[in-house]
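Entry under discussion copied across for reference:
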Amino acid sequence: MNNKVRKAVIPCAGLGTRFLPATKAMAKEMLPIVDIPTLQYQIKEAVDAGIEEVILIISNNKEEIKKHFQRDIDYENYLYEKGKYEEAKLIKDISTMAKITYVVQEEQKGLGHAILCAKEAVGDEPFVVILGDDLIINENGKNVSSQMIDIYDKYHCSVIGCQNVEPSQVNKYGIMALKNKMENRIGYLLDMVEKPKLEDAPSTLACLGRYLLTSDIFAILENTKPGKGGEIQLTDAIKILAKDKDVIVYDFVGNRYDIGDKFGYVKAVIDFSLKRDDMKDKVLNHIKNVLSDNKD
């Protein structure tokens, strides 16, 4: 087994029904945070963490993802001819930012099935999983994938990225039950309860779209029976893995945006705009004007 974390898997085959009608003809992963697709931010997270290959699990109707990340020399030349050198470099850099491998998920059978589709591309190696609905930013230190790779390098076992959520929100997430009290942001998984009622939740520590998994997960997924909705659930496979091997629950550092939710997406667009020198003053003034116009 290769113990170095070199690969990341990003499932991108979902239909994005929560963002219809925009996602009727556009992959939800390509919805932009101002002018950068969310998927590009997540690939950059992987690259900045030292990942050498990003494996995108796509469906047959998501050719726009491939188009965005492939080289377009004609467009580059057009931009050069127009004197738009910065823009030409920008689109070239997108095509060279990472080695990207595409794997087609023929049927939508759940997150566990999407991860299983990556088995051949991943091989016998640990790998990061980045879920597209979770955009996580840590401006003052290592990004979340880097943090989890550091945990793996020390303990050599699977890691689940989590944070505490408001008690009223536990019914939206997979909630962790731990074998021990958290120390230095680390605990060990006993069980995961999927979207529990508050009275049934073992904690408020929720899985938030980042995993670092050993290749043991593939054999388990191959034998995991479909669960809720007839889908193969990654949660079910991780619970089986935790019965025989340590699985670390890591309370990562970072600000998370739920961009699978419309309000979470709008929050991300506003916050990212306010961090850009070319936009922050205009956006801030607009917000002030809106607030002024809506005073009672």
Remarks:
- The mean pLDDT is 91.
- The two ends are 64 Å apart (CA to CA).
- Residues 10 and 56 are 5 Å apart (CA to CA).
- The chain is about 35% helix and 25% strand.
